[in-house]
Amino acid sequence: MMDIREVSPGFAVAPQIQLADMHALKERGFATLICNRPDGEEETQPSVDAMREAAQAAGIAFHHIPVSGGAFPDAAVAAFRAVRRGTDGPVLAYCRTGTRSITLETLANPDGIDRDKRLKRAASAGYDLGTLRDTLG
């Protein structure tokens, strides 16, 4: 069962989704998926290629912006921001637990909102990103 957490209108995060979830995601209106997991992070996770193929077969755009080890390189943040700003329709970002995805959203700030509102959105979705407060400026 998918654990989709709405962060803002048109954007949600989730823990790992499965190949079989694609048609349900399309029915829920998602236009784009962003995978924030490196391929092969866990033996049981579907490969990025399989996820991309399943998403595209369901009519959903797919982007792979992997981050790991608690590092969020500027290039990954910029790529995430570009996808979010360049996408028409709802976006779902996922990783193992959703934390990397919500962190990228918060750092990328595609909606141009202030720090406290970004942290509040994350908290409302069930993610405490208070440790980012000082880096968000």
Automatic annotation (TrEMBL):
GO molecular function, one term: hydrolase activity
Residue ranges that the Swiss-Prot or TrEMBL entry lists as coiled coil: none
Location of the Beta-lactamase hydrolase-like protein phosphatase-like domain: 3-108
Pfam family of the protein (one): BLH_phosphatase
InterPro entries tied to this protein: BLH_phosphatase-like, Prot-tyrosine_phosphatase-like
NCBIfam families in alphabetical order: TIGR01244 family sulfur transferase
Name the record gives this protein: TIGR01244 family phosphatase
Protein's organism: Erythrobacter aureus
